[in-house]
UniProtKB/TrEMBL annotation:
This is Uncharacterized protein.
Length: 183
């Protein structure tokens, strides 16, 4: 089976966070990364032990021919291609988690809390941009075939209209607008 592409190290780390230890179900993992050749491709292997039960964990991802440049202070998970690691529903789930804790009044937060809230909202906007990469040119919505995980399919089943391009763009732009209030 061909290795899946991790377009950035941020995407690889997110994937590892979302895939818990098979032995105990915990996500604590302090991986050490190394560059290797796997199946004739340049790859990045992450190894380490589960912080909960000590079971060995390993993830190997193909690396892109060209690494996308890092964003200024906006999180970036990949280039213009849709993710091979997370499906459209998982990206939307992540955006929901990140944006759900947004306090209504920035004035009640200290500087550190405002920075964290701003980063969470910008990361949610980036996750929504990742969902949009699954919408084919000229299409109105994410095709259901791009939902291969149980989490992604569950998010879609709960609210399929949220996968429409117009809704995704509006939600992404709203996250960006609210993030600006926390600067």
């Amino acid at each position: 089976m061909a290795l899946r592409l991790a377009r950035t190290s941020a995407e690889a780390h997110l994937y590892m966070e979302l895939h818990p230890c098979e032995s105990c179900g915990q996500t604590g993992f302090d991986p050490v990364g190394s560059v290797v050749e796997a199946d004739g491709d340049l790859a990045r292997r992450y190894t380490g032990d589960c912080l909960s039960c000590g079971a060995p964990r390993e993830f190997t991802f193909r690396v892109p021919d060209e690494i996308p440049p890092a964003g200024d202070d906006v999180p970036r998970f990949g280039d213009d291609r849709p993710s091979e690691l997370l499906d459209a529903g998982e990206w939307l789930w992540l955006a929901d988690i990140l944006a759900s804790g947004t306090p209504p009044d920035p004035a009640r937060l200290d500087a550190r809390q405002r920075r964290q809230t701003r980063m969470d909202l910008l990361t949610a906007a980036s996750a929504l941009s990742e969902v949009l990469k699954f919408v084919p040119t000229g299409a109105e919505a994410v095709p259901t075939k791009t939902l291969w995980s149980s989490r992604g399919r569950a998010v879609h089943r709960a609210e399929p209209n949220r996968f429409r391009r117009i809704h995704l763009e509006a939600t992404r732009d709203t996250c960006r607008g609210i993030a600006a209030r926390f600067s």
